[in-house]
Amino acid sequence: MRSDEAAYTPADSSVLDGGSAGPMVARLVLGERLRRLREERCVSRVAAGHVIRASRSKISRLEGGRHGVKPRDVADLLTHYGVTDEAERATLLTLAEQANAPAWWQYYADVVPAWTQVCLGVEQAASLIRCFEVQRVPHLLQTPDYARASIRLAHPDAGAEEVDRRCALRMTRGRILHRRPAAQLWAVIDEAALRRPVGGLDVMRDQLRHLIEICRLPHVTVQIMPFLAGGHAAESGPVTILRLPGGLLPDVVYLEQLATALYLDKPSEIERYWDVMNRLVVEAESPDETPTILHRILQET
Q1: Pairing of β 184-190 and β 220-225
Q2: Partners of residue 128 on adjacent β-strands
Q3: How far from the centroid of its chain's Cα atoms is residue 247's Cα?
Q4: Using CA atoms, how far apart are residues 12 and 10, in angstroms rounded to an integer?
Q5: Can you give the C-alpha Rg of the chain in angstroms?
Q6: Cα angle at 114 between 242 and 243, to 5 degrees?
Q7: Who contacts 37 (Cβ-Cβ below 8 Å, separation ≥6)?
Q8: Full pLDDT tens readout for the chain, 301 residues
């Protein structure tokens, strides 16, 4: 699969129905469409800002899907861009209303940093998630005990209540693997993450058993990058690629760091990371070997 398979198509509001999409996807779709309309009409961000009495930076944030927008401002921009088709205007104004709805993770807002919000919103609506992890089992595949241990390492000053809330958020995210239709997850995990007993040996053994079970799901593929493979295509660190259904948006490349995250949106960058991900699945052990490898590590743990 390649990033150019997810080229933009006109926004289909039916794809955004339901709670799973949430406001973030609506913001991204609306922002992408407004950006394309502005560029097609050769309007600068400064000029667009004047139309809605806003700054250039606000137009940039709007087009990047980083906050909601007033339907009135969207209507003014559409008029300025010469959009007269009533169906298109109605679709985009509906997206503007959806973009201001509460996010699904609002209940956990106190433990959701701003730089993860796009990922959380897109993840819940994604049809495909590809990821590579080096130090930890991927969040979506973690058991509660493993998640708590991992959270304590990342947030050593957090109290028990905060740890529980962060863990609950992580478990809620994992429900996308059990919904209908379920998201397709394809994960490559470095052997180091499976050998490191996060939370102690008992917690790690339960985590390995959980991976063995979840690998049986038809929409979950797990591959292991063994130590013996030596160097590999993703030595720069973990990476996640998310794809929305229906070609609503280009794929999202998410690179999480210690206290922030990068979202790559240039076609050349997305294509490069797809190339890395596709090379990883060739370099890693076959998915058919994953249960055998996990059983062996479990016996040695």
Answers
A1: parallel
A2: 184, 243
A3: 15
A4: 6
A5: 21
A6: 10
A7: 77, 78, 81, 83
A8: 333 333 323 333 333 433 455 688 888 889 989 999 999 999 999 999 999 999 999 999 899 887 788 999 999 999 999 999 999 999 999 999 988 888 888 899 999 998 898 899 889 889 999 999 999 999 999 999 999 999 999 999 999 999 999 999 999 999 999 988 899 999 999 999 999 999 999 999 999 999 999 999 999 999 999 998 877 777 778 999 999 887 767 899 999 988 899 998 788 999 999 999 999 999 999 999 999 999 999 999 8
Catalogue all structural domains in the chain, each as residue range(s) with its CATH number: 16-99 (1.10.260.40), 112-300 (3.30.870)
Please state, as a whole number, how many other Cβ atoms lie within 10 Å of the Cβ of residue 73.
18
**Residue in the structure block whose two tokens are 């059990």:** 178
DSSP state of 13: G
DSSP 34-62: HHHHHHHTT--HHHHHHHTT--HHHHHHH
CA–centroid distance for 288 within its chain: 26
Task: Determine contact, residues 175/117, Cβ cutoff 8 Å.
Answer: no
pTM exceeds 0.70: yes
**H-only helix segments in 41-143:** 45-51, 56-63, 71-80, 86-99, 117-125
Chain mean position to CA 219? 17
Q: Tell me the CA distances in angstroms from 115 to 57, 64, 93, 102, 259, one per residue in order.
A: 17, 13, 26, 17, 9
3-state DSSP call for residue 226?
coil
Euclidean distance between CA atoms 248 and 12, whole angstroms: 8
Helix 117-125 crosses helix 22-40 at what angle (to 10 degrees)? 100
